[in-house]
Amino acid sequence: MNEKKIVLIGAGVSGLLCGRRLAEAGHSVLILDKGRDIGGRLSTRRTDGAVFHHGASSLPDFYSHKELPEFGLEIFKRAEKEKIIQRKGNLFEPINSVADFVNYCGTNLNIRKSCEAISLNLYNKTIVVKCRGGVHEKTPYDLLVLSIPPNQAKTLINKQIYKFDSLIGKVQMRSSAAALFSFDINPEPVKEKHFSNEKVHVQVENNRFKCEQQLFCLTVHTKEPFAKKVVKNDKNTIKELLLKEIIDAVPFSLPKPTYEAGHRWLYGFTERSLGKSFLFYNEENVGICGDWCLGGTILDAASSGIKLAEHILTRYNLFRLNYLSL
Ligand SMILES: Cc1cc2nc3c(=O)[nH]c(=O)nc-3n(C[C@H](O)[C@H](O)[C@H](O)COP(=O)(O)OP(=O)(O)OC[C@H]3O[C@@H](n4cnc5c(N)ncnc54)[C@H](O)[C@@H]3O)c2cc1C
C-alpha cells in the first residue's frame, strides 16, 4: 500500500492517541487544531501563581476500563512509570500539570495549532483550514479523521454523508462553564471541601497542583440547567455570574478575589453516547472518533481514537511497524 496522506482534525485525547497509534505504526499524520494549545477539554491556563485546569484533571482507573485497547493501556502505564500521572484512590492525576500529560499523549506528532477546519469537500478530498492570521489553506488528504464533538463534525460534513445527521441525532452533549478564584484568606478554619447550591458545585482546591502559592482557591462548575443559561456569555460575565454563586453557596464571607479565570464549553459532557467505538465511511475515506462515541471520559476518548486508528491500519493494510517505540 502506498503512503497515505492522513489529516486529522482535533488534538484532544482521542485525536492525539489516534494520531499516535497511526504514527507509531510508521505513518505520517498531520494534526490540525483550532486551539492555541492542544488537549481540547483537557485545558490549562497558567498565570500568576495559579493553574486553572478548565476541564478534565483526572483519569478514571485505566487498568479496569473495559474498552481500552492494549496500546492505550501501555501508553497510560508508561505515563505512570515516567511519573507523569499518579494514582489517587480510584483515579489517576497528572503529577505536575495536565499540560504535561497532554504533551506526553502528543509525543512526536506533527501538530499545527491555531488552524481551524472550516469547510470540507469529501468529493475532492480537500479540507479548507483557517490558520493564524486568517490565512485560508486548502489541504488535500487521502484519509481524513475528525476527532471533534458531534455537532462540529455535523457542520463540517454538511450533509455530504448520507444519514450522518440522523445517526448522530441520538447523541446528546451538555454545556458546561467553570471558573477558578483565589482569595487572600487563611484556609485553615475551612474544613469542608465541597459546597453547592441548586446552580453550582464548589470545591476547595488548596493544593500545589492547582493553586501553587495562592492562599485559598475555589473552583466552581455549573450544574444543569444553569450551564445552559450561562454558556452563551463571554468569559468575564461567566466569572462574575459564578462568583455570585460561590458567595451564595459557601457558608463564610469572601473578600475580593486575588485571581480569577473562567471558561466554557458548548459541548462539555456526553449525556448520551453513540454506542459505537467510532464511525468509518469507506467511500468517503473519513473516520470519526471522540469521547461521545463511547461515553464521556478521557478513557472513552482514548479508546475511540485508538480503535479508529486500528481499524484504519487493518482496512488499508497499513500495518508497517508495530508500536516499537513503546
Ligand atoms: C469541565 C469538565 C471536566 C471534566 N472532567 C473529567 C475528568 O475529571 N475525567 C475524565 O475522564 N473526563 C473528564 N471530562 C471529559 C473529558 O474532558 C473528555 O471526555 C475528553 O477530554 C474528550 O476528548 P476528545 O478528544 O474526545 O474531545 P476534545 O477534548 O473536545 O477535543 C476536540 C478537539 O478538536 C478541536 N476542534 C474542534 N473543532 C475543530 C475544527 N473545526 N478545526 C480544528 N480543530 C477543531 C478542539 O479545539 C479540541 O482540541 C471533563 C470535561 C469537562 C468539560
Describe the structure.
With 326 residues, the protein is of the alpha+beta class. It folds into two domains: 6-47 and 62-170 and 273-315, FAD/NAD(P)-binding domain; 175-270, Polyamine Oxidase, Chain A, domain 2 (Alpha-Beta Complex). Helix content is 28%, strand content 30%. The strands form five sheets. It has a six-stranded mixed sheet with strand order 8-2-1-12-19-18, covered by helices on one side. Strands 14-15-16-13-17 form a five-stranded antiparallel sheet. A three-stranded antiparallel sheet has the order 5-7-6. The chain is globular and about 60 Å long. The mean pLDDT is 91. Bound molecules: flavin-adenine dinucleotide. The site of flavin-adenine dinucleotide (FAD) has 38 residues, from helix 1, strand 5, strand 9, strand 13 and strand 17.
Look at the structure and give the mean pLDDT: 91
**Major sheet description:** 6 strands, mixed
CATH architecture of the largest domain: 3-Layer(bba) Sandwich
In CATH terms, what is the fold-level topology of the largest domain?
FAD/NAD(P)-binding domain
Please identify the structural class as seen in this structure. Answer: alpha+beta
Overall 3D geometry?
A: globular
Q: Mind telling me the CATH superfamily name of the largest domain?
A: FAD/NAD(P)-binding domain
* Heterogens: flavin-adenine dinucleotide
